[in-house]
Amino acid sequence: MELIKGFEHIVRENEPLAALTRLRLGGVAEYYAEPTNIDELVGLIKRFNEHDLPIRMIGNGSSVVIRDEGVSGLVIHLAAPEFCKIEVNGNKISAGGGVQLAHFVSTAVREGLAGPENFAGLPGTVGGALHSNADANGVAIGTWAQSAMVVTRTGEVLARSRDEMNFAYRQSSLSELAIVSAEFEFESEPSEELTKRLQKLWIVQRASQPAYAENAAYIFKDHGGESASKLIEQAGLKGTRVGDVEISDRDANYFVAGPNATCDEVVRLVELVRSQVNERLEIDLQPGITIW
Ligand SMILES: Cc1cc2nc3c(=O)[nH]c(=O)nc-3n(C[C@H](O)[C@H](O)[C@H](O)COP(=O)(O)OP(=O)(O)OC[C@H]3O[C@@H](n4cnc5c(N)ncnc54)[C@H](O)[C@@H]3O)c2cc1C
Questions:
Q1: pLDDT tens digits along 64-93
Q2: 253-283: pLDDT as tens digits
Q3: Which atom of ligand 1 is nearest to the CA of 150?
Q4: E strands present in the chain
Q5: Ligand 1 pocket check: which of 131, 153, 289 to mutate, most ligand atoms within 8 Å of Cβ?
Q6: Active-site residues: which are they?
Q7: How confident is the model at residue 288 (pLDDT cuts 50, 70, 90)?
Q8: Which domains does the chain have, with CATH numbers?
């Protein structure tokens, strides 16, 4: 087939995406690819762009929900070793876009680089986290970013310096299609101190989140410094359910999906929470998840 000619070894058609997301639901990707190097990534992007087909990046699928009818065009996953490299150089870490946040955190803690320990237990990849400037315990990943390598929707490879990047609450200016790698800089702190902090934060996080085995996603952004979890709880919505999707009784900002859950039920529960919080507290909560 002309569209994927030369890329047959890395492209799959009608690939189920549910297992690649935290809620473990939704349909297939029309095309799905795991490029093994930057040339394949760029080549694929150019090819699908020439055919005017949509292209999306997926990381750990922690904040992506797949529609039941599936996703048209191409979904790219930077899971190959080339995109999962991590290197430490003094106070700096260079990480591929596909690096797991858990690996990023453990590397920083081991090397005595302070900050990432705050991300204890946060699911995701470096690329996904930078895309939406993930934050936890009052610190955001963009704070440490010094540069990034990105690929645009037309297949151009660009280097973004610190001056060219802007980060705000759950937002970054890295809106190009793919974040391939990034370099971060940190303050030093004894590794033993960071390990202790990491362990404490991990315990607190585990106690407040739904059980690890559950299919759960963190749904809304905080509102003007107020925690979305508290606002949803204040609106009396803990435990509310639509079909097989339920608001967690541990933390109201988590939706937990049962085995028969659908994307449509997630969307209806999001709408229900937004309208109820608006009606009761006059606050318009914004979702932090993306529905494909
Ligand atoms: C249990 C749980 C707890 C969470 N707690 C928090 C929290 O405390 N704070 C917080 O900020 N978030 C939280 N989240 C959300 C999530 O962890 C972060 O948003 C995470 O950084 C997303 O990374 P990901 O790789 O899973 O991205 P995905 O969910 O796969 O993708 C998210 C977005 O990033 C884009 N993207 C992914 N990879 C790339 C790439 N390489 N280049 C360009 N774009 C890319 C996708 O297209 C999509 O638009 C939580 C999620 C869960 C499930």
A1: 999 999 999 999 999 999 999 999 999 999
A2: 999 999 999 999 999 999 999 999 999 999 9
A3: 42
A4: 11-16, 28-33, 55-58, 64-65, 71-77, 86-89, 92-96, 135-136, 139-140, 145-151, 157-161, 167-168, 171-172, 178-185, 215-218, 241-242, 245-247, 254-257, 290-291
A5: 131
A6: 170
A7: very high
A8: 2-80 (3.30.43.10), 84-192 (3.30.465.10), 211-291 (3.90.78.10)
